[in-house]
Amino acid sequence: MNLTKQFFLTLILTPLLSACDDDGLDMIDVEVPAGYELSAGTSTIFLNSSVAYDSEAPWVSGDYLTRFVRGDRLYDDVRTSAAGEGGGLGPVYAGYSCGSCHRNAGRTRPGLWNDGGSGSYGFSAMLIYITRHNGAFFRQYGRVLHDQAIYGVKPEGKLKVDWKYQTFSFPDGDTYELAYPQYTITDWYADEIAPEDLFCTVRVPLRHVGMGQMMALDPAEIERLAAQSNYPEWGISGRCNYVTERGKLCLGLSGNKAQHADLTVELGFSSDMGVTNSRYPEEICEGQMQMTEGSMMGLAYDKLDVSTEDMENVDLYMHSLGVPARRNTDDPQVKRGEQMFYQAGCHLCHVTTLHTRPRGATLLAGTQLPWLGNQTIHPYSDFLLHDMGSEIMGVGLNDNYVSGLARGNEWRTTPLWGIGLQEKVNGHTYFLHDGRARNFVEAIMWHGGEGEASKNKFRQMPRDDRNALVKFLQSL
User: Fold this and answer.
1) What DSSP assignment string belongs to 127-180?
2) Tally of helices (H runs) and strands (E runs) in the chain
3) Is the CB of residue 150 less than 8 Å from the CB of residue 91?
4) CA 201, CA 159: separation in Å to the nearest integer?
5) pLDDT greater than 60 at residue 449
């Protein structure tokens, strides 16, 4: 290990090891291989394979490892409409397991590109949000349109996507193409909603990289970033989202618009799979005709489909996943790309270094994870809301969907750690909230609003520098 890496490792680990000594926890020694850098302190793993998102952190052992394995199984196992363990699917749903949409804890290839919309294979790896123009929900539906259903029950609707393409040029003559999705909903199960009365936005799955570290972040640091995140020369001014969870007003961290204060395990079981639980005991289609049809088929809706203990094991699994280390950090092109990342001002929103609070994270039923505490981490995000613009192809990234304090044109800065392994883990490079960007260049060129100045910096770079910046992103 060279002296620079040795110093870096000592700086990262000393606070945690001191905390471990005080609490009687097992100490962890992390050896950083040449060409790598720690991403998440002692939760960093050195994998460059299809399971790079789906492996436990080095500190997971003993009973925590047993529970991690149980949570992993529950995350991936296919649920059915039958009663009992592993049942409770539906009557309507979006995915039949967490892993159906988050393959290997990543982003399953979205049906928007594979199937032109809603798939016919029991899931479509996306969520379809619908509202009225004034933001209100529709009486017969709710916030999510469930495009899948168990046998004998009709889905709430089906999504069809048409792609509109436009070609642009860099100053040096190289071209790139942006694809904008245009959505149509067909096969409404009840009242058909006129297109002029409907706002529709689609979300493809987020990568579950660094979820535990995100939940252990020091809220005061994020709020300080919001107070200091004012760069008028770049047009950047980030702000926090605040949401009410479990009766408390909390800082939002999770989700595309930082609209959640937890990892939404209970909400995912309910809204995505139709699996009732202690926090959401009612069926998602309560009051709809699906309930009547299901009862006629002999399905019982009078008990919860998943226990709190099982949900907390899934929560533990997600919190305890290792974070892939940065790779190829000695590569000259990667180093040049990192310089371009800073030169373009990308780091002003994709903040490189944050810290977790001393006591780590707490799971949904109260289990403590102190190993996540006192960590210096590198998520490449400030977890703040930023206006991403409305001007590109006439629409930009404004989806007209309000989440907490977040307006339609505001999005949480996406954490970039692990992003370079998405193709290896999930077999595709579709990015942004709805997967419209098919590669890193398109993702950058969709930036508008507060990202406009950085995008233009990238646009003006010579081809070799643009390629280097992409190479840097691939190293994360």
Assistant:
1) EEEEE-TTSPPPTTS-SEE--EE-TTS--S-EEEEEEEEEEEE-TTS-EEEEEE
2) 15, 19
3) yes
4) 11
5) yes
R_g of the chain, CA atoms, integer Å: 22
What band does 380 get if pLDDT is binned at 50, 70 and 90?
Answer: very high
Backbone angles phi, psi at 199, to 5 degrees: -105, 130
Encoded tokens for 258: 């930082």
pLDDT the model gives residue 123: 76
Q: Facing residues of 52 across strands?
A: none
Q: Which amino acid is at 16?
A: L
Tens-digit pLDDT profile for residues 417-438: 999 999 999 999 999 999 999 9
| CA–CA separation, 323 and 316 (whole Å) | 15
Q: Give the rounded distance of the alpha carbon of 41 from its chain centre.
A: 21
Please answer whether residues 97 and 78 qualify as being in contact, where contact means their C-beta atoms are separated by less than 8 angstroms.
yes
Q: Copy the structure tokens of residue 55.
A: 């492996």
Buried (b) or exposed (e) across 39-71, using 16+ Cβ within 10 A? bbbbbbbbbeeeebbbbbbbbbeeebeebbebb
C-alpha span between 371 and 353 (Å, rounded): 18
- Given a contact cutoff of 8 angstroms between Cβ atoms, the answer to whether 238 and 251 are in contact is no
Q: What's the pLDDT tens digit per position in 242-253? A: 999 888 999 999
Instruction: Note the pLDDT of residue 27.
Output: 39
The residues with which 21 forms a beta bridge, in sequence order, are: none
- Dihedral sign computed on CA atoms, order 84, 86, 87, 88: positive
pLDDT of residue 127 exceeding 50, the answer is: yes
CA pair distance 102, 203, nearest whole angstrom = 12
